[in-house]
Amino acid sequence: MIRYSGLFRLLAIVLIVLLSTGCGRWFKKDEPLESLPVEQMYAEAKRSLENGNYGRAQRYYQRLVARFPYGAYTEQAQLEMAYTQYKDGKGEEAQSTINRFIRTYPAHRNIAYAYYLKALINFERENAFLDRIARIDTTLRDQSALEQSFNDFADLIRRFPDTPYAVDARQRMVHLRNLMAQREIGVGTYYLRRGAYIAAAKRGEYVLEHYPQSGSQGDALALLVESYSRLGQDKLADDSRRVLQLNHPDHPYLSGDWPQRPGWWRKLIPLAAERG
Hints:
Blueprint: H1 2-20, H2 38-50, H3 54-67, H4 72-87, H5 91-104, H6 111-125, H7 128-133, H8 144-159, H9 164-193, H10 197-210, H11 217-231, H12 234-247, H13 262-268, H14 272-275
Helix pairs in contact: 2-3, 2-4, 3-4, 4-5, 5-6, 6-8, 6-9, 8-9, 9-10, 9-11, 10-11, 11-12
């Protein structure tokens, strides 16, 4: 017992020494969130954001807003906090913050940017590149975030048509329209493979009606030709084929190899080969 008591005393002494020297800084606040004036707090938050230290930036922005609920620094801090959360991958928090900013400061000098950021947050939630890297079948996923982002960009253009944000918004809307149309085609071919020909045809019709300028027009016509043919609707199939030949003479469907050739099928339905 004496030996163990001595050991415990030695460990206690070592711990006290560590706490009183360098290791003590682990338990101290090295960020004076409660003492800095608003100008310095904002400067620290901004510096952390620019350096990519999003966690520290958020702490400073949040504490700034709590300590100084009114004023120009507070307004800008809330806007930049939404951007920081967005860059930190916290989409839900960023969306909540930016929506609150828009409601609270509808006449802010940077309100156009706020609407742009709102749309951008939803846009980044559906990053098709990351989906492909993760090998996720995007054609069968809910695309409500895509639609919301598209509507948000449209709202931005309507409200602020002469801003640089509107120019970028139009380009992103083209991308979103193509992506939404491609997903509709993917779902249609999924139905087609499972013998749901009416549902497949409806997807093709939907793309032609709602995405008339997308890059999936040829795919939609090909889907209609195949669906109508399997339904025995020869006149509709022939009409769709003529339109396809006229507008997309090089479409893979017209080669006669579809769906045996995997290239076009795999483009429409990721992981089609794996599903067999």
